[in-house]
Design a protein that fits this description.
This protein has 25 helices and 52 strands. With about 1000 residues, it is α/β, with parallel strands linked by helices. The protein has a 14-stranded parallel sheet with strand order 33-35-37-38-39-40-41-42-44-46-48-50-51-52, with no helix packed on it. It is elongated, with a radius of gyration of 46 Å.
């Protein structure tokens, strides 16, 4: 049989169809390109299994070689306009059995020409069919190309199409466009074994060798024709058309009827394709025709041709007696899947008889009565089928699923299950009629039953049922399950998985099952008490049991326990040698006795992570554990005392513990700790050999602190107003490696405490801002390596307090000094800036006594000053920094918010940033700063001319901010850019002219 893909059909194959009886008939037939009168004979031959060359193909039916045929293909969405025409293609006639050729400018041959959009494309306006009902034909065209025999030349074959020697046009060009690959047949077979069917069809279009290799039966063991759907209305139309097409000549039809017949053949090609694929690959072992049209015809043809068929999947149609009688002749069949189908006429008994069938699924099917006689059957599923009677004769059946068979009576379930003595797994979920008597009979007949799913069976209680070999038991939403049912479950000594979700009448569970692995209790409204004893228990799921009061678990295998939102839980007893993680979040009723459970000797020796978030009844928590690593007490608002003796504890979370007053950590393995979130903390004991960072910021009532952290490098005690000198002295003695010490707003720290800083040889940062210090001599004597000193708002410091800095050279390593909001006079500030040339960052923000910043004098050495901040100095009027000041490193100068500043004259070679914003009195601005990049003059009263003169010598200026400058108009922007061509951004509050 020769079936052509629309890519392979050329104008020289006009002999495939066409009749010449009359001019009208000839034109119609030449347009459609096939012999309509012969269809009756061809159809008969096909039904008899004679698949030969006479069968019409879909491509020939629609006449791809003619213009009208192309229009028909376009209308059905089965055609794509090629980007390169066949007249522009050249092919080499070289040997094809060892070599595959690829052309760089050739049309890409895509066998799956029907895209997902094409599948839904609409028919012409004259057609009576909806676009949604047109089936996808992509796989049809893919498989059709695979069926082409070697007797017909393919225009894309390496040796077919055109004769290079006969056509002498530019054969040399093709040689430059092709790439040759030597691929043996064995290598091709190995490569193609990784491809799916669609990719195999694409590969088949490359050349004859590839087509032969891709058609090997090893790749076509599984034939998939799933979802070749057709609507009920179209089935009726096609049935009428098939009858009329066999008795009425084509030329007698009207135009619309001809289109309908053409549409008929489109769907018939699916039928022809399935049959021919089964004929061509008789060794195929798996066929899927789920959702295909005329499923009863297709499946009969498939099982008659495929004698080695092992797996058959079908559905969405009607299957009658011929099918069920026919599968008995398919001796190799091992698995049969029928889904969403109507069996028989809906009122008769359907027999399923097969001697070797192992797996049978008849799901979601409409049938009144079914009889299964399969002596080798192992698994059977009748799930969601609406049969009223089921008779089983399957002595070797191991697995039976009759879930959601609502019409199946209690007696029918009993009869079906008890007839299978080797049954191991039974699913009767959603069978509302099943009773304890049925389960008792099943337990007596099926002694090997291991798995039972009786979910949503309201009439069972299991009180008189003994299932000794059961390993899996599912009882979701069983209203009859109560605490009395647990005694029956206790007899299932082999039970491993137990699910009791949504058992609304269950109040308590007490089980001692040696093999129990998993148990689930979710949404049990009246559940109060849980007691489990199983050495192999590995998973416990308890959730949304609002009344649960007590839990007792004994297990050697349980590693993780999650009991979130058990609001009534008050007692917890655990004997779990392998337990490592426990989550008790939102267990609001837990009391302080829970600490004994998780301490050493409490039954959880391997516990590493404990979460007690939002346990609001906890007031005093104390753990002594050698295994605990992570502890979370977030949101425990009633917690007032904390005592942790956990040497390996690495992380503790105390967010929201607002009422914590006493905390003892010792010893612990913490590396960092933040207690600043505990504002009521008064007493602290901390022993942490590995700690490097401690934050006590905000512990305003902390009065006693013992900190023993030999590796501590950073201590922040800001706003610890009750921290005294003795605490600071003890801390410095025990923590000699501190490098950063912040004592801001610690008014109780005095000279004695500062003298203890001599025990900190590595101290480089000291913050004494907002303190009542009057003498800094202890700092100068003790902190010889100090690099950063912050003295903000130290209003009790005298002018002479800083004399050791600029007269005697104290703190030679000091680089940053912050004297903001101090009371130093003008002379002290001038001496400091003149003599301390080693300073790199100086902050004088808000200094009320500073009047001028005048460096109009020579210095003996180079200044290292890089950053100078004088923000908000209300009395400063003039700033003069000439080149003689030797400020070669000054890069940032901030004078903003200096309301009385009138004159600024700065000449600094490396100055990059200058901020004069909100200097509303500024009148004179002189700049000689060739590297200045940013200048801020926001809200200044300076005029345009002054700004232009100032920025003329700033050749690197890129950003200028003149927002809210009253003397700057929108026209000034042009002049400013002309004065400084390097400007990239000018910020102005005015709209452009």
């Amino acid at each position: 049989m020769k079936i052509w893909c629309c890519f392979c059909f050329g104008e020289d194959q006009d002999s495939v169809g066409g009749m010449t009886n009359s001019s009208d008939e000839a034109s119609d037939n030449s347009r459609l390109g096939f012999r309509w009168g012969s269809y009756g004979r061809e159809r008969a031959d096909f039904e008899e299994g004679k698949v030969g060359d006479a069968l019409p193909t879909w491509e020939a039916m629609v006449g791809v070689g003619s213009s009208s045929g192309v229009r028909a293909v376009e209308a059905l969405g089965f055609y794509e306009e090629p980007s390169v025409t066949s007249e522009n293609l050249e092919f080499d006639g070289a040997s094809y059995n060892k070599r595959a050729k690829f052309y760089t400018d050739i049309l890409e041959c895509n066998p799956t020409v029907i895209s997902s959009d094409a599948d839904n494309s609409s028919l012409p306006a004259t057609s009576c069919y909806n676009a949604s009902s047109v089936p996808s034909m992509s796989s049809t065209l893919c498989y059709t190309h695979m069926l082409n025999s070697s007797g017909v030349q393919n225009p894309y074959d390496s040796s077919g199409g055109r004769d290079d020697e006969a056509d002498g046009s530019d054969t040399s060009k093709i040689g430059t466009l092709e790439t040759r690959m030597d691929l043996t047949d064995d290598l091709l077979h190995m490569v193609f074994s990784f491809l799916d069917h669609n990719d195999l069809c694409r590969a088949a279009m490359v050349c004859r060798q590839w087509r032969t290799a891709s058609a090997h039966e090893d790749f076509w063991r599984c034939l998939n024709f799933e979802n070749r759907a057709i609507s009920i209305q179209q089935c009726d139309i096609l049935e009428n058309l098939m009858i009329s097409a066999m008795v009425q000549p084509y030329y007698s039809y009207q135009v619309k009827e001809k289109e309908n017949i053409m549409f008929l053949y489109v769907y018939l090609d699916v039928f022809l394709l399935v049959a021919d694929m089964c004929h061509r690959y008789p060794n195929a072992t798996e066929v899927n025709i789920f959702g295909a049209p005329y499923i009863h015809l297709l499946v009969v043809k498939a099982i008659s041709l495929l004698r080695n068929l092992e797996v058959l999947t079908l559905g969405r149609g009607q299957l009658g007696d011929p099918f069920f009688h026919g599968i008995a002749e398919c001796h190799m069949l091992r698995s049969l899947v029928v889904n969403d189908a109507t069996l028989g006429n809906g009122i008769q008994e359907i027999p399923v008889n097969h001697d070797r069938l192992r797996h049978l699924q008849i799901t979601k099917c409409r049938v009144l009565r079914i009889s299964v006689r399969c002596p080798q059957l192992e698994t059977l599923s009748l799930k969601r089928s609406n049969m009223a009677h089921a008779v089983l004769n399957c002595p070797l059946l191991h697995e039976l699923d009759i879930g959601s068979c609502h019409k199946l009576a209690d007696a029918g379930i009993r009869s079906a299950a008890t007839s299978c003595p080797l049954l191991e797994s039974l699913d009767i979920s959603n069978c509302s009629s099943v009773s304890d008597e049925t389960l008792r009979d099943i337990a007596e007949s099926c002694v090997n039953l291991h798995s039972l799913d009786a979910s949503y069976c309201p009439n069972i209680s299991l009180e008189s049922v003994r299932l000794t070999m059961l390993t899996v038991l599912k009882l979701h939403n069983c209203e009859g399950i109560t605490s009395a049912s647990m005694s029956a479950i206790q007899h299932s000594s082999m039970l491993e998985d137990l699910e009791l979700d949504n058992c609304s009448l269950l109040t308590s569970v007490t089980l001692n099952l040696p093999h129990l692995l998993n148990i689930s209790l979710v949404h049990c409204r009246k559940f109060v008490d849980l007691s489990l004893r199983s050495l192999k228990l590995s998973s416990v799921t308890v959730s949304n049991c609002a009344a649960l009061h007590r839990i007792s678990i004994t297990s050697n295998s349980l590693q993780k326990l999650v009991l979130q939102k058990q609001e009534s839980l008050t007692k917890l007893a655990l004997e779990c040698q392998s337990l490592q993680e426990v989550d008790l979040t939102d267990c609001e009723s837990l009391t302080n006795s829970i600490c004994e459970v998780f301490s050493d000797g409490g039954g959880c020796p391997m516990l590493k992570s404990l979460v007690l978030d939002n346990c609001e009844s906890l007031t005093a928590v104390g753990f002594c554990s050698t295994s605990l690593v992570n502890l979370s007490l977030v949101g425990c608002r009633a917690l007032t005392a904390l005592n942790l003796k956990c040497p390996y504890l690495e992380q503790v979370s105390l967010d929201g513990c607002d009422h914590l007053e006493r905390a003892s950590f010792g010893p612990v393995g913490l590396q960092s700790l933040n207690l600043g979130i505990c504002p009521k903390l008064t007493i602290l004991y901390l022993e942490a050999p590995n700690m490097v960072l401690l934050e006590l910021k905000g512990c305003g009532v902390l009065s006693e602190a013992s900190i023993n952290c030999p590796l501590l490098t950073s201590l922040d005690a800001s706003f610890c107003s009750q921290l005294k000198d003795d605490c600071l002295s003890a801390t410095t003695a025990l923590c000699p490696l501190i490098e950063s010490l912040i004592l801001m707003s610690c008014p109780s720290i005095g000279s004695d405490g500062l003298l203890s800083l001599r025990w900190l040889p590595s101290l480089t940062l000291l913050d004494l801002s907002y303190t009542f210090l009057m003498n800094l001599q202890p700092v100068f004597d003790s902190c010889l390596q100090l690099k950063v000193l912050k003295l903000q708002a130290c209003k009790y410091l005298k002018d002479s307090s800083l004399e050791p800095l600029y007269e005697r050279g104290a703190l030679p390593s000091l680089r940053e000094l912050d004297l903001s909001y101090g009371t130093l006079c003008q002379s002290a500030i001038e001496e400091l800036l003149t003599c301390c040339t080693h300073l790199t960052h100086v902050s004088l923000n808000g200094c009320m006594n500073m009047h001028d910043l005048n460096w109009g004098f020579n210095v003996l050495q180079n200044r290292l000053l890089q950053n100078l901040n004088c923000v908000g100095c209300p009395n400063i009027k003039k700033v003069f920094i000439p080149p003689a000041a030797c400020c070669f490193h000054l890069s940032s100068l901030n004078l903003s918010l200096s309301a009385n500043l009138k004159e600024v004259d700065v000449a600094c070679f490396n100055l990059c940033f200058l901020n004069l914003s909100n200097c509303c009195s500024l009148e004179i601005l002189k700049l000689d700063c060739p590297r200045l990049t940013s200048l801020f003059l926001q809200s200044c009263s300076i005029d345009q001319v002054t700004i232009e003169k100032a920025i003329t010598n700033c050749n690197s200026l890129e950003t200028l901010d003149v927002r809210f400058c009253p003397k700057i108009c929108s026209v000034s922007m042009v002049s400013l850019r002309a004065a400084c061509p390097s400007l990239k951004r000018i910020f102005s509050s005015l709209s452009p002219p």
